[in-house]
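Collaboration report, partner site 2.

Our partner group contributed sequences for two proteins of shared interest, and the home lab folded both. The records are reproduced in the order in which they were received, starting with the first partner submission.
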Amino acid sequence: MPRGSVDMNFLFALGELNRLVRAYADKQAARHGITRAQWAVLAKVERTEGLKQSELAEQMEMQPITLTRLIDKLCDNGWIERRNDDTDRRVNRLYLRKAARPLLGKLGGLRSELTATALEGISPADAHRLLSQLETIKENVRNAIQNPADVPPNKKEQRYG
């Protein structure tokens, strides 16, 4: 059990957990010849085929040039294809290729392994409760970002000069 107050430890524990899970996922994904970042792109495209490349960059909070390099690699491996948008030829939409399906099946198993390892020793009921609590925390932070408490509503910006 951690020592000290929740205020003192919560954010550090959350950050450290995030770092450790990423490192573990990187290591395990390498077994399948893929990076965690490539895995994340494949998973997003699987969930929302036809997604614009620019939308994916925004969702993943990634610079467009970084995402472009990842997608180039996934295209070179035959896992993703870019298709032109019917209404805007500047836009690329992303689709899975048939060759990605077996890899995604293996990665689904790997996701389950990662989750089982992380939740070892935690009962299913406690795991569901934890997930629910994490969703509440996410919503609290999302609301704080969208409605900052330190900004008075409807206050006009003062202009000088």
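Second partner submission, folded after the first:
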Amino acid sequence: MKVIAINGSPNKEGNTFHALSMVGNELRAVGIEFEILHIGHKMIHGCIDCGKCSINQDQKCSIKSDELNDWIQIVKQADGIILGSPVYYSGIPGTMKSFLDRMFFVSGKNGNLFRHKVAAAVVAVRRTGGSVTLDSLNHYLTYAEMIIATSRYWNVIHGKTPGEAIKDDEGTQIMRVLGKNMAWLLKMKEATAGKIEPPQKEEKILFNFIR
């Protein structure tokens, strides 16, 4: 089994990286492969609402100026995904937001590629805005019908300079517990494969209130 973690921070080894690594250490401890995909420093275009991903049904975004289509396939092959983000103005940074909008849009318009994968979101913040950002990340996971792992508190860790989050005793515990719980869900899913039928996928019903 393998989990892909998305590092949405521009800093390759900042506090978002350390938070993801703490979760990853628990996964690796029980034999689950773990890899961090650093995208926060890339130039990633926002969604232009062209609808081509829905029309073409090729699991690709029409924008070819970045590596998003390669990343979609990497995430698609994984058993689990973790979204990791710093906090910018009490929200997801623009690069990470562009990445998530396009990746999950393509997934949703191509049969829901990430449905029933085990998932989690973690946030690194200096002071405040962490829970708001975490909520925004979880919107993507719930929309995609993913199985969300939780911890004993909201998945937020505090620190300013790179590595300072390691000193957040409660935050580090949150990440450890999250890793253990995520590993447990992945193991349960593996153990019940072929024994318990997953819910049948339903076609999405769209309803507009203004007609």
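Feedback sent to the partner group on the second submission included the following. The mean pLDDT is 97. The longest helix spans residues 169-192.
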